[in-house]
Amino acid sequence: MYKFTLIFNPYIMLRIYLLCFFISILQINSFAQTIGGKVLSQQWKKIEYGYNPDSIQIDNIYYIHGDGMFMCTNKGLYYYIDSIYRFKKINVSPNLANARVSIIMKHVDYYYTGFRDGYGLYRSHDLKKWEPLGSGKLGTSKIFYLYSMDSMLFVCNWQKTIYLSHNLGKTFRGISVGFNSLGKSYINNIENSEEYMFCSMNGDGVYSLNIKKGTAWEHSDKGLPESKNIGEIADIGKTLFLATDNGVYRSDNKASSWKPYNTGISGKLITRLVAEGGILYAATNKGELFYSEDLAVTWKKIPIDFMQSPISGVCVTDKAVFVAVNGLDAKPSYVYYLPFLLKK
């Protein structure tokens, strides 16, 4: 009868352990997505603290380089504290503690935030002390969007008016000549590419203005869906992109005409369109998130394993991809993030 003796060799066991470890790393990388040379984690994480997800509606989330991420809601403005994974409420005004904030932006050395409920525009140097800006119609405007370019501060309101300031918001003048005053339309956002400004207007089309030579905005809707249900405009270099209820459209001729670039996202209602680091991100009303690294020629889906509710905000930092989800039918609203792991 034979007897077998198992001999424990620590060196062999170490080699087996290292082999298993490298195999697991290769398996992870084989399934993980890479965006802009960075590997995405496969597990979304939820930010649960600092706000009430059952009563809040998230309008958007914004990333200010060097400062961090902010959340604009129907219950005010919040700042994300990355070190402890929670939000903190920012009190713009005691009388506006629960007013609906539409946007926050940094221009030169000041933070600017606008309210959708008709409370106008506010400015702060340190996020602690805020002062109201503007008078007349601007002071009671429903602010939808803010934009900064060099010394110029642009303010877009519900009444299809764009105001411009050259002195940090002390005084403004209207620059809305050329807009169609008829119909139920409103400004989504504005962008700048080279010497042109572009304005996306839901229910109407896209307007362009030559900053150096133009005196009036010029309208174009050539190639856009008949519904004119359009959203945000984004740019990468000289190329423009537009969110619509039929995917993403692209223009290569300064918004004179548009073509659908929808391989993989045709027929989808795009709720957010963000360009960051040469990469385009498109979110939908069904809780889907796509990205394109080739100017919208092809789209890839980022898997989402949480509730399939409309995505109301997208921002990308050097650490993660963040999305805000507005819960429907009594579902809560949350912010989720998908961390970047390492560079390939």
TrEMBL record:
It comes from the Bacteria. Gene3D superfamilies: YVTN repeat-like/Quinoprotein amine dehydrogenase. InterPro entries: DUF6242_C (IPR058667), WD40/YVTN_repeat-like_dom_sf (IPR015943). SUPFAM superfamilies: Oligoxyloglucan reducing end-specific cellobiohydrolase. Pfam families: DUF6242_C. Residues 194-317 form the DUF6242 domain. This is DUF6242 domain-containing protein. It comes from Cytophaga hutchinsonii (strain ATCC 33406 / DSM 1761 / CIP 103989 / NBRC 15051 / NCIMB 9469 / D465).
